[in-house]
Amino acid sequence: MSTDVIVRAEQVTKSFGDLHILNGIDLQVSRGEVLCIIGPSGSGKSTFLRCINHLEKIDGGRLIVNGSLVGYREVGEKLYELPDRAVCAERSNIGMVFQHFNLFAHMTALENVIEGPIQVKGVGKKTAIKQGLALLERVGLGHRAHAYPRSMSGGQQQRVAIARALAMEPKLMLFDEPTSALDPELVGEVLDVMKDLARSGMTMVVVTHEMGFAREVADGIVFIDQGRVLEAGLPEQVLGNPREERTKAFLSAVL
Ligand code: ADP
Ligand code: MG
């Protein structure tokens, strides 16, 4: 397999008890690509992102991220579960941004950003601070480095969350509806940071209902319905000229 494939899902399945949530997801994301995932609520989008990030174990199929099988090590024909330490090492290559920013409330913006590099990567404090300030600058928040989350707007908090994820120097960034919890006037500033990141060549998987963003930034779109990829293609095709009735119905509801 080409090392330029960052995410490859082949017939990925996942159930919670009797609930079949992912029913054979197939997709691929290459280095530097932005894939947007759209689809109705409850269709398994978050579950799939959580599988990519080792937060859920898949039941069937194959999921390969950054060149390794997620959750397992393959030796010949046999699969062995990865030990926790190996899972942490894999996960440190993946940044994830959630709908609710999940910042540490008792830490300033800068402290939030430098925590991972210092604790997980063993970066020295001075270096971490220098890099952290540069990242906050990059998301337009250099002037808020010493502010606490409670004193920041939702849009600012989400930009700190993005800076915090980037501080780990991930090879892949996952976004799960990063603007869904924001007041409408704050959505743009977060999307702008994500657009810059995409332009810088970051590989991104973005679950979003922001069709303008998807159309402008995505290299590919997948429409997930009932735990399957119902339709996939270029943005102009999937958003502009969808093949499937259910894609059409979904788009006319969100647009
Ligand atoms: P989406 O992000 O597309 O809205 P989700 O992946 O969050 O969908 O959820 C898909 C379905 O899986 C939902 O019906 C949800 O209730 C269910 N689900 C998600 N996580 C769990 C869990 N840990 N246990 C049981 N059911 C879950
Ligand atoms: Mg979700």
From TrEMBL:
GO MF term list: ATP binding
Q: Which UniProt keywords apply?
A: ATP-binding, Nucleotide-binding, Transport
One Pfam family assigned to this protein is ABC_tran
Q: Where is the ABC transporter domain?
A: 7-251
- Entry superkingdom: Bacteria
Q: Which family does it belong to?
A: Belongs to the ABC transporter superfamily.
What is the protein named?
Amino acid ABC transporter ATP-binding protein
